[in-house]
Amino acid sequence: MELTASAPRKKVVVFDYGFGNVRSAERALAHVGAEVEITRDFDRAMNAEGLLVPGVGAFAACMAGLKEARGDWLVGRRLAGGRPVMGICVGMQILFGRGIEHGVETEGLDEWPGTVGPLKADVVPHMGWNTVEAAGDSLLFAGLPADARYYFVHSYAVHDWELEVGNPHLAAPKVTWATHGERFVAAVENGPLWATQFHPEKSGDAGAQLLTNWINTL
């Protein structure tokens, strides 16, 4: 699923704060036609057309790494200016108000209210392919069939969507769900801020289409 040769190459920064599969994300974005740079340079990340924030590991460690790299300021400033940001996996989770792991509570970026907590299922982590219940009129999942499957690797999730109205200056949130033992938030689209709990860079053709959809909005 590649952009046409005539389409302008959008500049995307994969933010390298030490807690993400940056090379996989770089390859996936380049595959669908983006001009990709891996960096933690604040100004370069601020000025890119799109910013992708990956994340793997523990919520608290990711937040510490993000703050050390000034990523919390970066995300906030980009969103204040209406500049697109996309979070993946724990990069999505840290956008919420707080995370609780092993009884330890850590403050997130609080772009959306909500708590990331343990996933209650017979088998944890949730590792492998799963379908989603895409939000109506979703741009992120445009052109993708309802039975498309995406690759998940996580033991924690957001179980309740708490933002009812949201910022009146932003598009109304579109929330996509998935189920593994219990229902959880699988993706969110909210103005310039998009995020997925699954890994689009590891989700084959479906993930490539999804990343293409994001790039086409930049």
TrEMBL record:
The active site is at 89 (nucleophile), 199, 201. One of its GO terms (biological process) is L-histidine biosynthetic process. Its EC number is 4.3.2.10, 3.5.1.2. Pathway: Amino-acid biosynthesis; L-histidine biosynthesis; L-histidine from 5-phospho-alpha-D-ribose 1-diphosphate: step 5/9. It catalyses: L-glutamine + H2O = L-glutamate + NH4(+); 5-[(5-phospho-1-deoxy-D-ribulos-1-ylimino)methylamino]-1-(5-phospho-beta-D-ribosyl)imidazole-4-carboxamide + L-glutamine = D-erythro-1-(imidazol-4-yl)glycerol 3-phosphate + 5-amino-1-(5-phospho-beta-D-ribosyl)imidazole-4-carboxamide + L-glutamate + H(+). Keywords: Amino-acid biosynthesis, Cytoplasm, Glutamine amidotransferase, Glycosyltransferase, Histidine biosynthesis, Hydrolase, Lyase, Transferase. One of its GO terms (cellular component) is cytoplasm. PROSITE patterns: GATASE_TYPE_1. One of its GO terms (molecular function) is imidazoleglycerol-phosphate synthase activity. Pfam families: GATase. It is found in: Cytoplasm. Residues 13-213 form the Glutamine amidotransferase domain. InterPro entries: Class_I_gatase-like (IPR029062), GATASE (IPR017926), Imidazole-glycPsynth_HisH (IPR010139). IGPS catalyzes the conversion of PRFAR and glutamine to IGP, AICAR and glutamate. The HisH subunit catalyzes the hydrolysis of glutamine to glutamate and ammonia as part of the synthesis of IGP and AICAR. The resulting ammonia molecule is channeled to the active site of HisF. HAMAP family: HisH (MF_00278). Heterodimer of HisH and HisF. This is Imidazole glycerol phosphate synthase subunit HisH. The lineage of its organism: Bacteria, Bacillati, Actinomycetota, Actinomycetes, Kitasatosporales.
